[in-house]
Amino acid sequence: MTTRNVLGLDVGGSSIKYQLASVAADGLPVVVQQDTLPTPESDPIAAFAAIARQLAGDDLAGVVIAIPGLVDSDSGTVLRSVNLPHLDGLRLGPLLGDLLEVPVDVVNDGRAAAIAEARWGAGDGHHDVFTLALGTGIAGCHVVGGEVAAGAHGIAGELGHIVVDPHGELCGCGQHGCLETVIGAPALRRAWRAAGGEGSPRDLLGAYENGDVRALPIVERAGNALGDALLTLLALVDPGCIVIGGGLASSPHRLVQLAVTRVDEKATFHVVPPIVSAELGRWAGAVGCIGIAVDRLTRAVHASAAR
Amino acid sequence: MTTRNVLGLDVGGSSIKYQLASVAADGLPVVVQQDTLPTPESDPIAAFAAIARQLAGDDLAGVVIAIPGLVDSDSGTVLRSVNLPHLDGLRLGPLLGDLLEVPVDVVNDGRAAAIAEARWGAGDGHHDVFTLALGTGIAGCHVVGGEVAAGAHGIAGELGHIVVDPHGELCGCGQHGCLETVIGAPALRRAWRAAGGEGSPRDLLGAYENGDVRALPIVERAGNALGDALLTLLALVDPGCIVIGGGLASSPHRLVQLAVTRVDEKATFHVVPPIVSAELGRWAGAVGCIGIAVDRLTRAVHASAAR
């Protein structure tokens, strides 16, 4: 096996973050290019093919595309993407693969980012990593040995939808009092407005830092709810490391600090693992795509050697 | 590899349930003997060795011992067993292994039973099985591909210690309102006595069947709490099958039926897997020991072939 290129595309609603990596015989990828591109608005298969050919030339061994939404990775199909509705139902993997004549994998963007954080980011060195992204939703993903432990039906890790308050608000998922109804960005925004505050959840967190008494109960309730949910995670899943990222986890980290304090105070038989901040930031999705592409390349080499 | 014998000993406080199996070249075990013996009260290493020699003769390829308590399977040590205190701290695996000159594995009895139910019992045919034993405690165990997914620190699956009522009773583990404080046998006994009932949790369940209004709120609260805990399990772990056994799950099955009804009513995005009763009953622990012994034998053969 000589050096070959793999391409990771982390596709968002308006822009694509991509990494192009050169993979040596030992399977180690070296990122040779990293940038952003506008997301094509029409004819996605042809547009992605043109991007891949332009970036990687003839020496392309595989493409992995991360999509914000529900995907069926087995068939390479985008099931539903709120931010990329023109991809809904598209058999992106096989169609683009046929055109480029290389394997094309399609993954959920959160899972790609989780794989990246677990392998090369904040979870590096741990076999068993649970990543959590705090934002509009709460996305959880359990990565064991560098691979997603997705559960029997592909939905494991939904920490945002465990019930923390049975008498709480109706969640988008149909349950009442899910963690998301307390700590999700829309929930924090509503609570902050109801308390007379102005602006975004970040403004709420800023007001909390400045001692605003209106912010205090909202932020503490959210931090405590996250802590309680993490205790449930420790009891059921017992991860070796918890990585927390997403817009609400950064700047300031107060929500996470409150949650960690809660966990330390209330843990009994639990083993509290390191709870750390995500490190790869906005490039995590693209990095994860490269990881998945390298896995496929390595498996192909092994399968070929075994024949 | 010719046919060889493996021995599984499921050691309880007063009796040992054992199975002796003959393992053919294809790795399939055939149980040739199954019975109970009194648990030796002193000199456990010599006593276990005598039992193994007597049952298996010279043709012994491995022993697996299931212990009710905390064990370190890596070192073969019994850490703490309430029912077998004279084994506490004993390096049972290596000491007995040296004497018998075969590998001796030591496992927790609940995990051995879970492996058995997942492979050959009610979970047969499912890759990903979560087993739950309802009794004095609530023991959960996640078995994936026939092996226990024990978590990073060996404590995953503690469904009995997720908090279902933050304002609930103090649990033995130090938290408040764990599932065990609502549905564990001692909790049910206390609630039943407080309501003026007499007898055991089984009597409580019998009274519920007979329409006793004192039993109604206790049993429904317990069933609902189990259902809520199972919803959390579905969201976080997403198992392919849930197997429920233990003294409180059998005869009558009302607690489990109430929990399943609760899950069906409240599930939204969750995928509700088959929720079934354990099948192997009191022999599950010994059966699991045989499974673990066969695994070791098979690995040894593969390692030998690879050399």
Report what the structure shows.
Two copies of one chain form a homodimer. With 307 residues, chain A is of the alpha/beta class. Chain A folds into two domains: 4-112 and 282-306, Nucleotidyltransferase, domain 5; 125-279, ATPase, nucleotide binding domain (Nucleotidyltransferase, domain 5), CATH 3.30.420.40. Helix content of chain A is 37%, strand content 23%. In chain A, strands 3-2-1-4-7 form a five-stranded mixed beta sheet. In chain A, helix 1 crosses helix 2 (92-100) and helix 7 (216-236) crosses helix 8. The longest helix of chain A is centred in the C-terminal third of the chain and has 23 residues, at 284-306. In chain A, 49% of the residues are buried. The model of chain A has no long low-confidence stretch (mean pLDDT 92). Chain A binds chain B through residues 126-128, 140, 149-159, 161-163, 166, 173-175, 228, 231-233, 235-241, 266, 268-271, 273, and chain B through 126-128, 140, 149-159, 161-163, 166, 173-175, 228, 231-233, 235-241, 266, 268-271, 273. Chains A, B: This is ROK family protein. Chains A, B: It holds the Pfam family ROK. Chains A, B: Belongs to the ROK (NagC/XylR) family.
The proportion of residues forming helix of chain A, as a percent range, comes to 25-40%
Q: Number of DSSP helices of chain A?
A: 9
Oligomer: homodimer
Chain-averaged pLDDT of chain A: 92
Summed up, the domain count of chain A is 2
Termini gap of chain A = 15 Å
- By helix and strand content of chain A, what is the structural category? alpha/beta
- Gross CATH architecture of the largest domain in chain A: 2-Layer Sandwich
Number of strands of chain A: 12
